[in-house]
Amino acid sequence: MITCSYHRVVTKLSIAAAAVDWYSIGARDLPWRRPGVSPWGVLVSEIMLQQTQVSRVEPVWTAWCSRWPTPASLAAEPVGEAIRAWGRLGYPRRAVRLHSCATASVQRHGGRVPESLTELLALPGVGTYTARAVAVFAFRQRHPVVDTNVRRVVARAVTGSPAAGPATTGADLAGVEQLLPADPESAAATSIALMELGALLCTARAPRCPECPLSGSCAWRLAGSPAPTPAAATPDAPAANARGQRRSQRYLGTDRQVRGLLLAVLREATDPVPTARLDLVWPDAEQRARTLASLVADGLAHQVGTGHYALPA
DNA sequence: CAAACGTGGGT
DNA sequence: TACCCAAGTTT
Predict the structure, then answer these.
(1) What pLDDT digit, counting tens, does each position of A86-127 carry?
(2) Which among A104, A120, A137 is the end of a domain?
(3) Best label site of A130, A136, A189, A288, fewest CB within 10 Å?
């Protein structure tokens, strides 16, 4: 009873402390973590890092923050410039939303990134994770910050399961809250450490348990590191069908691919592109028309005159 | 709530 | 080589 819950608290605080200790020697030196980075720099990094590897974000973030060191500097340029600077990071609507974040910061928040969770959540492209990441990493507030890495670390170290279950924001936040020290600064350090641990050691595919500071108390290890249940279908990667046939390709031939092909042409052009040139990137005229229209609807492309397209002004 | 949304890293 | 998965958000 008392002893039991006491040990439970000690264990959880130990997880936080061990992760933070490890972080001081194991963490990467990432540019957006360096002293002096503005809240805007943090916001830019968090948006870029959504579903995107660190190694791909680094050069784009550096160039972006050098060119647009403040929300006002980006808001002063056409959104098309943001889309161009986004390069091949993927999910280019994030560039449009980041430009909108800049505009909103200028119009509603005096040119600064807002500090409250509520105001952050009101920014386009800023959801539960990103709002908390900015509030904690840029403004040092005390909130749980739960991304896919943290969910996996907690699933293994605390719950003992091989992988994180489907995202359940409420329960995930409550679970991590239990691990955080009371002091905001320590809580922030814990969140970054858990994320880094998940990214470098407690990885999804081949975890480096021998190097992990939590391995001694990890519930998953203690249970014998059971393998995850086989064919778990993920949203974007459906498992084999009922007849056991090979799974369908996720990307080739999809609207996603065609959008990417089309947008790449617009991004690299300095002048409006004639539709005849866009016709070259994909043979199916109907799919081309559909995806081009979707790019325009998403604010990623703009029709110029009758037969030309360009990045939006 | 499931599906859509890019592009490439790592094994 | 496949194929999973990556600091998620929106509709």
Answers:
(1) 999 999 999 999 999 999 999 999 999 999 999 999 999 999
(2) A137
(3) A288
